[in-house]
Amino acid sequence: MKKSSLQFILYVSYAILLTSVSMGNNPTNNINSALIRTITQPDTVIQVSGGEQQLLNLALPDGGVPPVPGVLNLELLRTTRDAPELADGDGWTYAHHMDLAEWRGRLYAAWNMTEKDEDVPPSKVVYASSADGVAWSKPADLFPRELAWACRFYFFHTKNDRMLTFCAARLGDGIVTEAQKSVLLVREILPDHSLGKVFTLIHPMEKMPPFFETSSDKAFTEACREAVNNNMLLEQQDYGVFLGNRKMSWHATTPQFNGHYPFGKAFSFFQRQDRQWVGISKMGFVTTSADEGKSWSQPVNPPSLVAGAAKVWGQRTNDNQYVLAYNPDPKRGKRFPLVMVFGNDGIHFRDMRVVHGEYPPMRYPGKYKDFGYQYVRGVAAWSTDHSFADKSAIWLIYSVHKEDIWLSRIPLPVHAQQDLCPSDNFQKAPVGAIVKDWNIYSPKWAPVTIAGEPGKPNNRCLELRDGDPTDYARAMRLFPAAKKITAKFRIKTAQSNALMEIDLQDDHGNLFSRISFTNDGELKASSGTGETSLGSYSSGKWVTFEISADGEQRSEIIKINGITFKIDQCGSQNLNKIQRLVFRTGQERKLGDTDALTIGQDKPLANPARFSLDDITVK
Questions:
Q1: pLDDT tens-digit readout, 11-20
Q2: Residue 417 domain-assigned (yes or no)
Q3: Which among 468, 583, 573 has a CA at the least distance from the CA of 514?
Q4: Could you tell me if 572 and 609 are in contact, meaning their C-beta atoms sit under 8 angstroms apart?
Q5: What CATH number should be reported for the domain holding residue 526?
Q6: What is the radius of gyration, based on Cα positions, of the chain?
Q7: Within a domain: residue 1?
Q8: Alpha-carbon distance 99 to 382, whole Å?
Q9: Taking the complete model, does pTM exceed 0.85, yes or no?
Q10: Helix (H) or strand (E) holding 584
Q11: Rounded to a whole number, what is the distance in angstroms from the first to the last CA of the chain?
């Protein structure tokens, strides 16, 4: 038989497969009508309780919402045109459309990149992997660059233990929206973490890689068929474009949100406690399925789920909690902060807390580059072989300003507040280990890590480095809110000309008091009475602090190397409880703050600042 005849037979078989599998998704087919039900009470699908939404202040980067205790914010990719060898290798500055997976003991991340604008060629889909979530491989092309285009999802672990990876195929040089992408490519990530041959999974065409059915690897073919038959996997692409007649029936009939935003963009799915699947798309549209994704309830917008125009991520965790991560903007425009709510049944969620609330400047403006932390995803139920060693956390991936790729590690079980006072000396923590119980903000060029003390490597410390011209390192320790606290710690600097601010704050980030290591070698305290000199500091010498803060009296006693200072008029009249101790290698940022960046400046500083912290207690 000629190759062309064989291809024709395969294509016809493929078309029959697409229209015959799971016909229940089309309302014109014979379906069990009981499985498609109209929801008249949206809050019976998802209900978010608590008053945080009403207190949200979008004039602040974190919205004034308390953080999830113990979250690590880690920058995976920092784009730059001035040092591309430290980023993607090409100096491209648009990075977005992310996904995560677990495979053979490693965490995998994939994302799309263009030179500077969204969906403007040239384009590439890249990936990186990590054995611990902290140290990542250098980004590499996931698919051949001449073929690769962004997709809403990139990973699928099959029942026969194959890890498939996908991307949309680029059919030309024009701008193509997510809903217009029609060809889906596939290849395998092999057990040794190498990449297999590229095939076409959906809509084979001439001049595209061969159809997967032509593969001689029968197990691979079986895995691809499973992917083709998985409605929820393919429904993640906008409006179910890869599903044909099998897509959700509601795409054409659901009224647009506020008359503008359509239903069915960027779905995420999770299975709740009663075994029903929940699908959430942009603008907080929610639908449920009782038959493994063959048919779906009428979409609703739960009034208590105030989700933005970015993605909403829903996930069941290893400890059988349920989390939603999203941007809580009531006007569907802003994409900050990134928050999380959690619960125990997949319906009732509570305690909105911030996952990522820092707001560095956008360095490289471009077309459709929105400000904020957006398009969050975690590890989907079908994207894991459960081999990643870190079982005590969930990981999320998202972009910041669509130019940098970030991860967040959220410890399990998720808690709304910290119940214990800290006593940390880091001595038992391995060098480079994840800093437990701290809220860490660790940019690529301003990392926060466990390290050896300079000159005494066997003494473990919490180290903050800062070599980033536009960002800073930050370590925050939460503790039970109290009117009176005593904090003790010691700090050694590797220089006497770099800034560190040490803040005591309340549960919403309002400042009670601040001590600064200044750029000119001085120590200063700030309060309502202005600045108070606390003496000087020298590089290579420990400075020991004891701060006794009184929220009722709005005062504090500071002992520095045994010398006592009294500071009055701390905080504000309505700030009488303290809950956070913050160490930051830069000035506190406000929304819209930016630094002028000229050509040649966007690269690591030649002499990064270095601060070592040790013996930190709060009582």
A1: 444 444 443 3
A2: no
A3: 583
A4: no
A5: 2.60.120.870
A6: 26
A7: no
A8: 12
A9: yes
A10: strand 578-584
A11: 81
